[in-house]
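Lecture notes, unit on binding sites. The following record was shown on slide 14. It pairs a sequence with pyridoxal-5'-phosphate.
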Amino acid sequence: MHYAKISERLGGLGSDKWAVHLKARAMKRAGAPVLELTIGEPDIAPDPVLAETVIAALAGGRTGYSNGRGEAPLLDALSKRYSARTGRAIGHEHIVCFPGTQTALFAVMLTLVEAGDGVLVGDPLYATYEGLIRATGAEMVPVPLAPGDGFHMRAEMLEQAVTPNSRVLLLNSPHNPTGAVLSADEIAGIGEVCRRHDLWIVADEVYEELIFGNAFASPLDDAGLAECTIAVSSISKSHAAPGFRSGWAVGPAEFCLRLLPVAETMLFGNQPFIADATAAAIERPSGVSSTLRASLKRRAERLVDALSGAPGIACFMPEAGMFAFVDVRATGIDGESFALGLLEAEKVAVMPGSSFGNGAGGFIRISLTVPEETIAEAARRIRRYAQGLAGAGKAASA
Ligand SMILES: Cc1ncc(COP(=O)(O)O)c(C=O)c1O
């Protein structure tokens, strides 16, 4: 039978990236006492206003078809939020709602690029980005992010990667997997390169509310970049509600007019009861995000502390998000071998860096979405595993 080329382009980019996680789940099902620190699922209950509003909305009959852009109460709430954030009037014409950031990114990419185009993206990168880009037929062009720069994108590195085919920079701050948070100055420098080369900036801001110290900055909030920026986000992280599948894209009105038919063709509208709940949730500060932020920060500090001095391991404090990105290069093995070996020997599941781009092969990503005691126990086992490697003579230095 015939298949479209998209199925080949995406081959190996889906569940293959999560092979260690899936193996850990299979071991758990078979009864093994595996500590799972792989995916970034918030481990607290969603903001209660979500369920309350969904129940009321369902009882109130909010179950019909929606329009393609989004329900009016949600568009109002997003208008208010982004107008306050950017200091400019962001109206309904600047917004399109989606079931989550992932779908929003997919539709945005489909609207902006196709075969023959290039999409620049920092490497390491979030595991689904390669698929998002390849699905359109465009080429992914990595911009190296250096551990020595704290994985912050440097404008010079972006400039070097630009080609005549470049159309879009897919920018992620706060960043998964590294936790890097770009400053307004860094974004201005990156934006200057984008403007000069006539590039769109697609800004994935799903971790906006999970920053531990520095202030959040966005190209959307920079008046000089707003015309070339599309910001995407959702309630998945901020309200601990990934299963609600509720997100949005915010960008120039003309772009949104072109995005709309793509969204309508994919979705034929969103769910009104989910839209009502999302509107209710984002109209007030999220108590969930402040609780989550505080516990993620505490867990990250605990992990950094517990891994300090472990042979061959360098664990730095992330600036934001749900993960610690840990350098295991000095153990003498790569991140994938480390993750697989750790799972076998110590029953601790972490993600190999190789799931997050070529620039991440010497790293592992440890999820912080588990209780502090689990972090402490995982750190003890990781340290023991690293000591074993050092004892076997694999570590470059102890
Ligand atoms: C960087 C990044 N973007 C997008 C997503 C997907 O978010 P959503 O649940 O809103 O689709 C995730 C989820 O982990 C993520 O880490």
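Take-home: The domain at 48-282 is CATH 3.40.640.10 (Aspartate Aminotransferase; domain 2).
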